[in-house]
Amino acid sequence: MDQFFAGVLAIKAKAGCKIKIVVMKPDDFLRKFVESVWEQNITIKYNYESHQKLVIVDGVLAFEGSANSTFAGWTREGEMRKLVTEPSVVKDLNDNHFLPYYRWGKEIKP
């Protein structure tokens, strides 16, 4: 995750959205980000087994593909970003590719 995505998530959290994130491993940037948003609606967990590239919004749409959660990853040619809007497919992606990693992940705390 880069500053662009972190900023978008922080703005949405301040607006009352509950944000849940799973990353493969914590780094210094994520630890500082967690410190800055600790009082907001953002929970970041890490799970070394996860290397998913999946964004689910409100359980009604998903983006999956090869793009990292960075501005460059979402604007660079050659990265795959597939929009999924079929409710049953979004639910399946959430249940099978997000929840298990979130459930067993360890929370990054300040």
Compute the number of structural domains: 1
**String of helices and strands:** HEHEEEHEHE
**Top-tier CATH class:** Alpha Beta
Counted beta strands: 6
Residues in β-strands, percent: 15-25%
- Averaged pLDDT: 87
Q: Strands of the largest sheet, in order across it?
A: 1-2-6
Helical/strand content category: alpha+beta
Radius of gyration: 14 Å
End-to-end Cα distance, whole Å, is 17 Å
Shape annotation: globular
Under CATH, the topology is which? Endonuclease, Chain A
CATH fourth-tier homologous superfamily? Endonuclease Chain A
Helix content: 40-55%
What's the architecture in CATH terms? 2-Layer Sandwich
Keywords:
110 residues; alpha+beta; Endonuclease, Chain A; three-stranded mixed sheet; three-stranded antiparallel sheet; 6 strands; globular
Q: Can you walk me through this structure?
A:
The chain has 110 residues and is of the alpha+beta class. The protein has a single domain, classed as 2-Layer Sandwich (Endonuclease, Chain A), CATH 3.30.870. 41% of the residues lie in helices and 23% in strands. The strands form two sheets. The protein has a three-stranded mixed beta sheet, sandwiched between helices. A three-stranded antiparallel beta sheet has the order 3-4-5, with helices on one face. It is globular, with a radius of gyration of 14 Å.
